[in-house]
Amino acid sequence: MKKVKKSSNRASTNSSPGQAPGESVRVLISRSRIRRRIQEIARQIRTDFPSEPLHLVGVLKGAVFFLADLAREIPGEVSFDFIAVSSYGKNTHSSGQVRLTRDLDSSVEGKIVIVVEDILDTGMTLQYLLRVFQQRKPKALRVAVLLDKPDRRITPVRADYVGFSIPNAFVVGYGLDYAERYRNLLDVGILKLPEPPEPPEPEVHPA
Length: 207
Ligand code: IMP
Prior knowledge:
- This protein is α/β, with parallel strands linked by helices.
- It has helices spanning 31-48, 64-73, 124-134; strands at residues 2-3, 24-29, 54-60, 78-85, 100-102, 112-120, 140-148, 161-165, 171-172, 188-192.
- It has a 7-stranded mixed β-sheet with strand order 1-8-7-6-3-4-5, sandwiched between helices. A 3-stranded antiparallel β-sheet has the order 2-10-9.
């Protein structure tokens, strides 16, 4: 797993970031590092399962680009499917509630399943998904995440394949969103939100 430090002096990522006023994005992991790391993970997965067909399950929507790039880097037979769970909505903090909002198209029974997630944060989503998948009797169950924020974990889950271990900051890009924006950024960056306005001074009346 690669560790990524929070500091990066490079300016904001991408050509058309769709920023709202006062928001800015600072590159944390460049597209070329992401590409190289995905190639390494793909090789590792094939080493672990040298000749078996692999079934990747992407967690919508954040994992779409990760799954698309990972699937194309793994040699041999690879199929994929998607599942969706409820997520943060418009906030940068988890509600702690996980709910299946879109199920798989096909059964995973007897398959080597690799759950592909964008980011492992509190671990609530993955804990829920692992429970769902284990009940469906796959031949093997593994987890690949592009990003891991270990400091935020509140559940005892771990991923088998981790792209980058990152500090506790809210990140966007390469599939990750804030209120559905920024998914199309090519790099992963730290989102800075505008400072909330100062509360008005309390009115003071003469006694
Ligand atoms: P967890 O259940 O807290 O582990 O959160 C997993 C989900 O929360 C991810 O699949 C993301 O959709 C979302 N999430 C967590 N951290 C971030 C972040 O820094 N940026 C964008 N989405 C995040």
